[in-house]
């Protein structure tokens, strides 16, 4: 079953054409990995999917659960279940991490017609995830991402994912800057979210993360288009021969 | 792109712009010795007070309005202002307060009926409309603790010795142009005396309301904390939406004796005028505290969201050894508002210490200036100051300016100053939106985060009010 379908997507950042007719179908319950050289358009793709202000869609369609979302704003896409784990999460001084997360969760619950979660229940929910992610409990009372190390920021992204329970999870370079312990904790969080329904889009330079999160499909993105789609076995070939050896199918 | 909706989100909304429909007695515009005599007579003042007022007037007539602040405004015609206006009926006891006034104060969120307050935390209120104090709640209960809480007019009649001793002792009669004007024409304000060793059993507050058209408000407040005492005092204010500018020139004097402490909080919400600078209050205020004795402590916390023009520098004279002065400020300028505000920390005693935390927020065409002086005298060995001035810009039409002045005659003094200017970035907004938080909520979350250090200084119930006010000031029109 299709979760997201991207048809002939063309997008610019500033004056530069980055995506040049990209086609990609993401299946429900599957892990899709996007690999490609620097500057291929990996980050632009993830930004286009979440409605980032930098990206202008100049052609093609993004279908999510059967609906075209090209014109849907960023907040609405988030509330509808599309989540991006940022490559570089921004720091917001003075905003309490727990307060932020509860506001986000309750915005989503309201959107779904559910009652708001009170502070005590929320705290319980949050604490249940902290240990698994190897996060210290003071992380939730600190300011959002402020002064966090690279690893702490990424763990915090995953904490948000666990709490918001999105349907499509886009992980932009989740493994960059992570040591092996952090990588393991983050992967464990991601794997916990696999339920046969959610879709994962793992955007990465390196195959390392794919040892922890087993992909169902590998897509090679080059010069603004997907030039090859294959099973997990493609990883080894890419490792051995590099992107230049991949010819468009 | 993300910033497009911002200017809409910060266009502000003034919720307290209603007019109280009461009959006022207002004297004709103009200022001369007769005006002063009229005010003094209205307040049934003793002769000595009138003499002082006339002295101030004489001095004021020889002074010129200062223009060193980074403020631009139309010239003020002091002869076109009416210097006294009072509700005609019922200002002697609560039973006689015009129900319309009670209703208006309810609308402002302040209950003037003691019995109605019993459920929550007790807050004693002095309610001042235009030139008079209409009522003071809990005065009797406070009296049992020896605490005097009354209007300054009552104090001049009932406690002349205290008034003579302390009025003009912190802000001299001819301190500056606006303070001198106030000394001549001041009408009501609050008088507080906390006796030795008494911890004031409740929060004290004054709510100032400018209501009449074409009048100015010139209140004078004097608070004395005797040795070892403590009081937390809060003031709030608002005014109707009018096309004309109105002048507010107040003076506040705080005297803190040995081992005593005053915590003074202000939530300033005068009518700010519109986006084109039409209407709004001109707020020229002199506030100063003196830590007279050892270990005295004073703390000014202000949240300034209103006024077209703000000129205000709550200051601390740290005379007693080991005395402590603090200044926590959030100043918001949106629409066409301009604020030039800050503090002065004058270190005279040994081992005195001061802290300045100033947060300026500018949006739309707002201009926000921090101006602060830290002065360390030659005997102030071991004096310490820490200053932090942060500015937050929302949009691209506003401005933030910082003028810190440091003067140290004592080489051992320790002065630390930090300043930052930041913008609400598209990136921050997008991050919150990607988590399902709407633009307005995202802006207010970032702004609250920025103000946290200051809000945490306010008494609980006022912190809630300040947050709500900030939200209203910066959100509003979108929804």
Note down, in words, how this protein is organized.
The complex is a heterodimer of chains A (249) and B (479). Chain A is α/β, with parallel strands linked by helices. Helices cover 32% and strands 27% of the residues of chain A. Chain A has a single domain (2-245), classed as Rossmann fold. Chain A has helices at 42-50, 74-79, 97-111, 119-130, 150-164, 180-193, 234-241; strands at 2-13, 16-27, 31-35, 55-64, 67-68, 82-85, 168-172, 199-204, 217-222, 225-230. In chain A, the strands form two sheets. Chain A has a six-stranded mixed sheet, with helices on both faces. In chain A, strands 2-1-4-5 form a four-stranded antiparallel sheet. Chain B is of the alpha/beta class and 479 residues long. Chain B is 24% helix and 35% strand. In chain B, helix 3 (47-61) runs antiparallel to helix 9. The longest helix of chain B has 17 residues, at 439-455. Residues 1-6 of chain B have low confidence and may be disordered.
């Amino acid at each position: 079953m299709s979760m997201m379908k991207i048809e002939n997507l063309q997008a610019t950042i500033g004056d530069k054409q980055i995506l040049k007719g990209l086609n990609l179908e993401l299946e429900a319950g599957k892990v899709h990995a996007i690999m490609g050289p620097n500057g291929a358009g990996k980050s632009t793709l993830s930004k286009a999917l979440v409605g980032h202000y930098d990206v202008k869609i100049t052609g093609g369609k993004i279908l999510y659960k059967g609906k075209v979302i090209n014109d849907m704003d960023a907040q609405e896409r988030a509330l509808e279940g599309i989540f991006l784990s940022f490559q570089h999460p921004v720091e917001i001084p003075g905003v309490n991490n727990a307060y932020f997360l509860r506001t986000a969760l309750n915005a989503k619950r309201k959107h779904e017609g559910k009652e708001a979660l009170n502070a005590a229940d929320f705290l319980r929910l949050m604490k249940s995830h902290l240990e698994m992610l190897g996060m210290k409990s003071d992380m939730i009372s600190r300011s959002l991402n402020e002064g966090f190390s690279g690893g702490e920021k990424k763990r915090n992204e995953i904490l948000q994912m666990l709490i918001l329970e999105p349907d499509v999870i886009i992980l932009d370079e989740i493994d960059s800057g992570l040591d092996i312990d952090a990588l393991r904790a983050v992967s464990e969080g991601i794997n916990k979210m696999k339920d046969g329904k959610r879709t994962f889009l793992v955007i990465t330079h390196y195959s390392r993360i794919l040892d922890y999160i087993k992909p169902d499909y590998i897509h090679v993105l080059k010069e603004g288009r997907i030039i090859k789609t294959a099973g997990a076995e493609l990883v080894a070939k890419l490792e051995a021969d590099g992107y230049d050896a991949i010819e468009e199918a | 792109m993300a910033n497009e909706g911002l200017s809409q989100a910060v266009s502000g909304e003034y919720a307290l712009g209603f007019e109280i429909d009461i009959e006022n007695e207002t004297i004709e515009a103009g200022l001369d010795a007769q005006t002063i005599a009229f005010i003094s007579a209205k307040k049934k003042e003793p002769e000595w007070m009138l003499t002082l007022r006339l002295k101030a007037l004489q001095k004021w007539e020889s002074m010129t309005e200062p223009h060193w602040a980074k403020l631009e405004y139309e010239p003020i015609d002091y002869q076109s202002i009416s210097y006294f206006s009072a509700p005609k009926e019922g200002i002697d006891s609560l039973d006689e307060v015009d129900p319309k006034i009670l209703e208006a104060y309810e609308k402002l969120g302040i209950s003037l009926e003691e019995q109605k307050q019993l459920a929550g935390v007790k807050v004693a209120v002095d309610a001042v409309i235009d030139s008079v104090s209409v009522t003071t709640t809990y005065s009797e209960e406070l009296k049992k603790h020896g605490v005097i809480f009354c209007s300054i007019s009552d104090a001049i009649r009932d406690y002349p010795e205290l008034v003579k001793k302390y009025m003009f002792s912190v802000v001299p009669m001819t301190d500056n142009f606006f303070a001198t004007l106030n000394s001549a024409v001041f009408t009501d304000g609050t008088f507080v005396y906390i006796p030795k060793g008494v911890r004031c059993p409740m929060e004290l507050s004054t709510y100032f309301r400018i209501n009449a058209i074409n009048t100015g408000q010139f209140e004078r407040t004097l608070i004395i904390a005797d040795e070892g005492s403590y009081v937390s005092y809060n003031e709030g204010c608002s005014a109707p939406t009018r096309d004309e500018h109105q002048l507010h020139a107040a003076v506040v004097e705080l005297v803190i004796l040995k081992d005593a402490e005053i915590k003074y909080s202000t939530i300033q919400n005068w009518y700010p005028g519109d986006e084109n600078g039409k209407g709004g209050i001109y707020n020229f205020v002199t506030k100063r505290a003196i830590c007279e004795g050892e270990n005295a402590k004073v703390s000014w916390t202000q949240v300034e969201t209103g006024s077209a023009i703000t000129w205000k520098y709550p200051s601390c004279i740290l005379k007693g050894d080991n005395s402590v002065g603090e200044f926590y400020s959030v100043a918001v300028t949106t629409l066409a508002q301009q604020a030039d505000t800050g503090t002065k920390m004058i270190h005279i005693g040994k081992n005195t210490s001061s802290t300045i935390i100033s947060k300026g927020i500018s949006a739309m065409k707002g201009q926000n200036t921090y101006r602060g002086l830290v002065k360390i005298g030659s005997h102030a060995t071991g004096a310490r100051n820490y200053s932090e001035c942060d500015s937050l810009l929302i949009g691209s039409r506003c401005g933030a300016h910082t003028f810190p002045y440091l003067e140290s005659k004592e080489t051992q003094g320790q002065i630390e100053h930090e300043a930052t200017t930041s913008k609400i970035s598209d990136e921050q907004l997008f991050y919150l939106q990607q988590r399902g938080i709407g633009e307005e909520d995202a802006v207010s979350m970032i702004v609250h985060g920025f103000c946290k250090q200051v809000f945490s200084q306010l008494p609980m119930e006022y912190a809630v009010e300040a947050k709500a006010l900030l939200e209203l000031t910066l959100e509003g029109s979108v929804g």
